[in-house]
Known about the structure:
- The complex is a heterodimer.
- Chain A is of the alpha+beta class.
- Chain A is 34% helix and 23% strand.
- Chain B has 8 helices and no strands.
- In chain B, 42% of the residues are buried.
Amino acid sequence: MAGFDHAPPPFFKRGPAPLALLTFYLAVSLALFVVDLRVQSLGLLRQSVALVVDPVQRVAQTPGSLVDHAIAYLRGLHKLREENTRLTQAQLLTAPNLLRLQHLEAENERLRRLMAVKEREKASGQVAQIMYTARDPYSRRIVIDKGQQSGITAGQPAIDEAGVVGQVTRVFPFSAEVTLITDKDQAVPVQVVRSGLRSVVFGLGNGQLELRYIPANADVEIGDLLVTSGLDGIFLPGFPVAKVTSIERDNAFAFARISALPLAGVENFGEVMVLAPREELPPPPPEAQGRRANTGTPKKAGAK
Amino acid sequence: MQPTFTSSRILLPVRPWFIIFSLILALLANLLPTAHWPGIPDWVALVICFWSIREQRRVGMGWAFLLGLAMDVADGAVLGQHCFSYVLLAYTAATLSRRILWFPLAQQALQVLPLLIGAQLLQLLMRLVAGADFPGWGYLIGPFIGALLWIPGTFLLLLPQYQPVERDENRPL
């Protein structure tokens, strides 16, 4: 009964042959694949398809969020009250620091101005809800519910209350994709708080981070806090990123193998804060005379 | 009761809106937050495979391509990855449809299994080319579950076609 059809078969109008169609579609797919992988210039196509897929994705999320709401509701008043007291206490504990923070910031600003150092940037941003994690089992990405309409641009960092979560990598009209710091090869320039050592931390794809290119004899200990160094011009300096969990020093290799666990609730659902893009960093000094330009002879550096 | 060579049942013609509805439903199922559970099949691949076998003149590579594009965007994967495998799946399923439909349902599932595995492997290959890590063999459980679901899936998707043209009091279904 295959192909059994009640309409009379259109003998003369059957469209292109299947093999031709197959070749055409496969060629288009391959072209898309190569262009997207190598040139990455298909943003507009991606955005327009996303506009169509977005409602479906939102609908697909409703059962999950309904269950979440139901669970939250059933957990009841008691838990909420408990949490409320805990939060009030936490707020009280941090109150002295917070109250003095404004004062300190003002003082810091004044001192910096006095010393003619560039003023520190202030963090500002907007809160976004995590809609869902990407379906892909290979990548660590989340999608948030703010996009171009809210002025999000690619490259903005995202944090939560404990530390850095990731970075916005793709922006759609009503949503944006944040690549988590645990994603494979997502890199964050960091600094060890205790020793001031600078390095770059890479995601491993399994929820852990690795601190690479640190000499085997460097001063790093288990439990060291890693914060953003801000040298990338994207992350503001000083946000906690991870804590060192294990160090392997092997004489056979020049570098130590240092793994770390992210501090932020990177793999949890919830809310994130997308920080506004940083101000432009001053242009790097010219390569050839880099050393001299740094020692304070602006005339020569300007002449180039 | 299945329309194989052993069955004399004549089905109603399929309604185009039902095909579109099932395809969108499959896309929805793929986007559910269950994707991280092990062994969840690729619903879109399964439904495309089904309609390519049953109604190759209505659902073909065009639909497969569009849904693949949607999946690529939704997944944040490299564009073309799902498109490629779905298009090839639709073509192979359409080519083999006469042969597959000749078998009873359980054996149809066995015939569909290599198609689903092939589609999944193709996606895996393209991801590896794009620079991803190998995710482990658990990734390939999905097609097996999908092939198992072929039997209830066929029943569900053919359900609207089982109804008689005229309602008969003596024969409700």
